[in-house]
Amino acid sequence: MTRRLLSLVTAFAAAATFALPASADGVLAARLGALLGQERQALDIVPDSRLSTLTALPASARTNPVSVGEGDDMMTEAFISTMSAPRGGSEWECLAQALYHEARGEALQGIFAVGEVIMNRVDSGSYPNSVCGVVHQGTGRKYACQFTWTCDGHSDAIGNRAAYARVGKVAQLLVEGSPRTLTQGSTHYHTKAVSPSWAQRFPRMATIGSHHFYKQSTRSASN
What we know:
Helix content is 47%, strand content 6%. The protein is mainly alpha-helical. Strands 1-3-2 form a three-stranded antiparallel beta sheet, covered by helices on one side. It is globular.
């Protein structure tokens, strides 16, 4: 069973890049669609505690060139556990859903880091100026969206309410303006299992959990 779970999670990591190029041909899109379907099914059956264990790196292999700043106190399970259940508006809901589908198997800092990228895009001027606009950019064009889970044709239903409540608290803190100290303004990320072409053009700002984080320059964004 463990080997089966590992193979499914590995397939997920190989498929999960920040955005599939719109020029991908039909055969690739069909194969990726099948793989993503397996990934979604795998995540639904793997407990989040087990997924976090499977994707975590040994302490000796973890790298994060960023020193964490004043937001440290919020990035602890102890602090999160003291928060009431979040009840936000549409912006909070969009961010919570994105964190659930993109990062719920990560340690707490990994969830915050993914959330920082979304919030950084909102502020950048090169992307939609709302959380929902950023999260759903390209949605409706299969595999041409920025977040694959929004356009892969599979259900986006929340299957693990406890995990959703946890990432929802992170979303609340970010929407309310908590310091973004982890990724130094990053606007992109990808899993360590893949190497998208844009990763060669943008400087890597941090490595947290199973993701590398990059910052797109203003000049690149305007080209």
